[in-house]
Design a protein that fits this description.
It contains 4 helices and no strands. It has 136 residues and is mainly α. It starts with 32 loop residues before the first helix and ends with a helix. The model has no long low-confidence stretch (mean pLDDT 81).
Length: 136
């Protein structure tokens, strides 16, 4: 028996308090990288968006250099790289600049993606060959 689809009900959510809203673009000018990292590690509300705004240009530049400017997976790789940085931020010891670390983490994510692409192409090619053999 098929049940009728119920309409989705939306609910109103209160706006976030002023203290947890994103930091304006110009507000990061006086924040040092070490202060920003300390705030991200501490879980400050403003720090995540400020961190992403700080490292995103380096992430995009690294991906463009490794895959080209018009790669279909650019936006996905930016998100994967940012997620990887947030997950591994506790392992950043500060022995290099934040930009260097950002480039290394992004390159690692890109190379992992390239390996996954290669594996997917191999799997689909073999599946296509098997399908062709069955059709003969």
């Amino acid at each position: 028996m098929v049940r009728p689809v119920q309409p989705v009900r939306l609910r109103l959510v209160e706006a976030a308090p002023e203290s947890s809203r994103a930091v304006p673009v110009g507000a990061l000018d006086g924040v040092d990288d070490s202060e920003l990292l300390r705030a991200v590690r501490a879980g400050d509300d403003w720090a995540a968006s400020a961190f992403c705004r700080r490292v995103r240009p380096r992430v995009q530049m690294t991906i463009e250099r490794l895959l080209g400017r018009h790669d279909n997976d650019m936006n996905d790789l930016v998100q994967v790289s940012l997620l990887e940085m947030v997950q591994t931020i506790d392992r950043f010891r500060g022995e290099c600049s934040l930009d260097t670390w950002t480039g290394a983490v992004t390159a690692h994510a890109v190379f992992k993606h390239i390996r996954r692409r290669r594996l997917e192409r191999t799997i689909f090619a073999r599946a296509g060959e098997a399908r062709d053999e069955e059709g003969e």
